[in-house]
Amino acid sequence: MGRRPIDMDRLAMDLILTDSLDEKKKLAKKITDIAYKKGIFLSSINEFYLARGKGEVPNNFTTPAMNLRVLTYDLAKAIFRVAKKNNAGAFIFEIAKSEMGYTGQPAVEYTAVCLAAAIKEGWAGPVFIQGDHFQANAKNYKENPEKEVDSLKALIAHALEAGFYNIDIDSSTLVDLSKPDIKKQQELNYEVCALLTNFIRQNQPRGIEVSVGGEIGEVGHQNSTPEDLRAFMSGYKERLRKRRCGISKISVQTGTSHGGVVLPDGTIAKVKLDFDTLRTLSKLAREEYGLSGAVQHGASTLPDEAFGKFPEEGTAEVHLATGFQNMVYDSLHFPKELKDKIYDWVKKNLASEKKADQTEEQFLYSARKKALGPFKKEIMGLSADIREKIAKEIEAKFEFLFEKLNVHNTRELVSQHTTLKRVISRKGAGTHVHMDGEGAD
């Protein structure tokens, strides 16, 4: 008798639903081993991005980096289906420091769930997992800089062990606009970013150069300028250890905000995004520093007509999160009784977070993401048929995004500029790290 085929759906569900971190690590190792045998490798997009910075790769597409907060396995499968159908290779799965906490998805689980989806859909080649918004808390940093940096180092070590070979450092929270000199404004930002880049280079697996992102303007605040970028890069390069590879991209502020601006009736306000800034800073980042270009955060709630503009302006990467979560909650297939139960929980347990000027609709919109962890088992406990119907709706959105961002037929290009490396030891993956900070896009 031959071996029974592995039920990847069951393996993924066991991983998602177990409360034991040790059990998650065992199941994650099993899934990762199967992935390697199928030619699926956790990878860094660094070589590909630096090739773009040198002009070896065209600038006419924008890599979507997608934060999957809920129904991660179902939505990751949908992404791989879209990628296979359209021969796309330039796409990233990501999760923010804060999201790991409030969605109940530790790094080791997120990585393995994405790999399980790749196996299930017959993918082969690189899979890019990214730590989004590994963010310095300005208040904590002011009180105790060393402690705050150490907490970020612990988070990075944890992520590397779990196979996150793409990490976005967000120390833009430390920018001090009260200082008259632009380089002084950026000083703590570039110092912390360089320090953490050095830490990543010391701790990354042998044979893998992790893709690191920096950020010059905090999302939701003042728009970024060429002077900001030059001041940051000048200080960053001075602080980076000699002959060490630096960042491969730079996040900038262009007028968006994470999660969108919610109107009193709960709808999203239209945002005027500054594409001129995006184009100017992307070009400058490539021509003066050899980076892939600028990164746009807070984009998932933008109007559909905006997405075709990103590749036109040479944007390297766009971050997408809240829009997918909204589509799950607002799907006609999402059971009303479960949604009502979640909203009741939000009103009862998160009432202290409601701002005085918020309507109930605004409060529920901004707070409901924090129910995804407490209700993770109930949402994943929905029938496979319901989950598939919701995922199919969002698959159509992935189709739209891949087309508008022009990532069709990027698979061979990505393969040419990506080293596939098996990392044997992932000792300690899944170590508990406390997650806090701001949400993702």
Question: How is the topology of this model organized?
Answer:
Elements: H1 8-17, H2 21-37, E1 40-43, H3 46-53, E2 63-67, H4 72-86, E3 92-96, H5 97-102, H6 107-120, E4 125-135, H7 138-143, H8 145-161, E5 166-170, H9 182-203, E6 211-215, H10 226-239, E7 249-252, H11 275-289, E8 294-296, H12 309-312, E9 317-320, H13 322-330, H14 336-349, H15 360-367, H16 376-380, H17 384-404, H18 411-416
Parallel strand pairs: 1-4, 2-3, 2-9, 3-4, 4-5, 5-6, 6-7, 7-8, 8-9
Task: Give a verbal description of the structure.
By secondary structure, this protein is of the alpha/beta class. The protein has one domain (8-416): TIM Barrel, CATH 3.20.20.70. It is 48% helix and 10% strand. It contains 18 helices and nine strands. Strands 2-3-4-5-6-7-8-9 form an eight-stranded parallel β-barrel, surrounded by six helices. The chain is globular, with a radius of gyration of 21 Å. Mean pLDDT is 91; it is low at 426-439.
Determine the structural class based on helices, strands and strand pairing: alpha/beta
Largest sheet, in brief, is: 8 strands, parallel, barrel
Q: Write out the CATH superfamily name.
A: Aldolase class I
How many separate structural domains?
1
- What do we call the CATH topology? TIM Barrel
Q: Count up the helices.
A: 18
Query: For the largest beta sheet, what order do the strands appear in spatially?
Result: 2-3-4-5-6-7-8-9
The count of DSSP E runs of length 2 or more, i.e. the number of strands, is 9
Q: What is the overall shape?
A: globular
Q: Give the mean pLDDT.
A: 91
Radius of gyration: 21 Å
Distance from N terminus to C terminus (CA atoms, Å) equals 50 Å
Low-pLDDT runs of 5+ residues are: 426-439
Helix percentage range: 40-55%
String of helices and strands: HHEHEHEHHEHHEHEHEHEHEHHHHHH
CATH C-level category = Alpha Beta
Percent of residues in β-strands: 5-15%
The CATH architecture assignment turns out to be Alpha-Beta Barrel
